[in-house]
Amino acid sequence: MQIGSLIVYSAFVGALTGVFATGFVFVLQLIERYLLGETLGYLPPGLPGEGGLSQVFRGPTFWWLALLLPLAFAASSYLGSGRGLGWLLAAYRAGQPVRALEYFRGIIGSLVQLGAGSPLGREGPMAALGLWVGSVLGRRIPLGESSRFLPFAGIAAGFAAAFHAPMAGALLASEIVYRGLALEVGALAPALIGALAGFTVYGLFHGYGPLLELPPGPLEWPQLFFGLTIGLVCAGVGTLWLESERVLQRYLRALGFGLRHTLFGLMLAVVLLLMPEAIGNGLPWVQLGTSPILTLPFLGTLFLVQLALLILAGGVRAYGGQLTPALALGGLSGLILAQLLSDVFPSIAPSPQAAALVGMASLLAGIARAPFAAVVLVGEMGGYSLLPLTLLGAFAAYTFTSPRGSLESVEINRGKEVPAGPPPESAPQTLPKPLPPTSSDSP
Q: How many CB atoms lie under 10 A from the CB of residue 388?
């Protein structure tokens, strides 16, 4: 293994992914500003780590302008390929060649739908950009067998930029490519180097602070019960989310792809008129929910509407990632449970900031099947003073959530996505190591 060359090229892949991720977010913000903010009169609050909580909330001048959303989703369904990060990872595992057009159709489709208010996450297309960069360079750089680690560096850089968390990005890349608790240890060093390089470049334009400002405060030992409880609650939420969207996929399969996405856009238009807070990125509402401004009924309604939208998004196979929404729903779950417990068992309920962090780690661990990355992500965001709580919550949710996570294995079958059962999570990670998917274009 050419260690020196691998380090250099991992850093190069990460830095190049950081450049593309910066451009992706810049274009995404433009679409949100002019389509949602200027035209439809609602701009979701921004992330504190990327410029604050500015918001436009006047509503569309004419109600029929909301019909632009189903039109945008119908158009984006034909721009995209219907193949997201899960399919691309399955192709990588199988050594299946993937054309650059397949990557960019999915990325462009995600860009349009996320800019039009989809509650899904930007981390999916950003990680797909990194996978493409690593795959292309892995085929062209003479590193021998070590070239298979470059896609890890790219994926990790995409996650690090999306979450402002390079260590968690590296762990997440390893945990989702080769499933289970037995990590692909050889990929961790290139992934960490790529994540650091990517976030260094991305942070020059979007800041280096954590996405949310959630100082957790001191840990009280009776609060360990809260960690276990929120883990079980998030396991139920995650299982309901994943299994409901799979049932919905079966029922909606008879509809055309464009019609399914139009249906989703129409539902978002209704939500825009009735409860616009539920569209777009839900993470800023977790930040706002730690203050007394938002009431328990509002948080509960926001949670239910967002969960329904996410189930529908998965059912129609909308473009975007499910990890950011998992953080948002997990944070809301923690806030709601802490408020409920504070009236009955005040010694058990942690501060709102701590409750949000533990809930975020728990639901992410179950949805992504990545408990290590979930714990480290929350640690990078709010510190490690809550480590006992986050460990309890994350591993409880990981244990009891449906074993088929949001990035479950997908069979590559004549160019179509066919969900398959996940590999055993206790399987040794000595499976055949695929080379990066072939890409005919260079970055």
A: 15
Q: What is the DSSP letter of 178?
A: S
Q: Which of 211, 239, 273 is the last residue of a domain?
A: 211
State residue 139's pLDDT score. 84
Poorest-confidence range of 118-132, 137-151, 266-280, 325-339? Answer: 137-151
Name the residue among 221, 160, 205 with its Cα closest to residue 373.
160
* Structural domain harbouring 284: 221-400
CATH number of the structural domain spanning residue 393: 1.10.3080.10
* C-beta separation of 175 from 368 below 8 A: yes
Q: Which of 211, 230, 252 is the last residue of a domain?
A: 211
β-strands 56-57, 42-43: how paired? antiparallel
Give pLDDT tens digits for 229-267: 999 999 999 999 999 999 999 999 888 888 999 999 999
Same domain, 193 and 286: no
As a whole number of angstroms, the distance between CA 330 and CA 381 comes to 14
Q: Which two tokens stand for residue 404?
A: 């088929």
pLDDT, tens digit, 9 for 90 and up, residues 411-437: 444 444 443 433 433 333 333 444 444
Residue 410, domain member (yes or no): no
Token pair, residue 264, equals 């989703």
Total domains in the chain come to 2
What DSSP assignment string belongs to 64-104?
Answer: GGGGHHHHHHHHHHHHS-S--HHHHHHHHHHT----HHHHH
- Same-domain status, 182 and 326: no
Helix (H, G, I), strand (E, B) or coil at 348: coil
For the entire predicted model, the pTM comes to: 0.89
| 116, two tokens | 């039009």
Tokens of 371: 């408990």
- Given a contact cutoff of 8 angstroms between Cβ atoms, the answer to whether 341 and 227 are in contact is no
Tell me: do 190 and 106 sit in the same domain.
Answer: yes
Q: Which residue has the higher pLDDT, 63 or 398?
A: 398
Contact of 73 with 413, CB cutoff 8 Å: no
Residue-level pLDDT at 13: 96
CB 200 within 8 A of CB 17: no
Which 3 state secondary structure label does DSSP give 110? helix
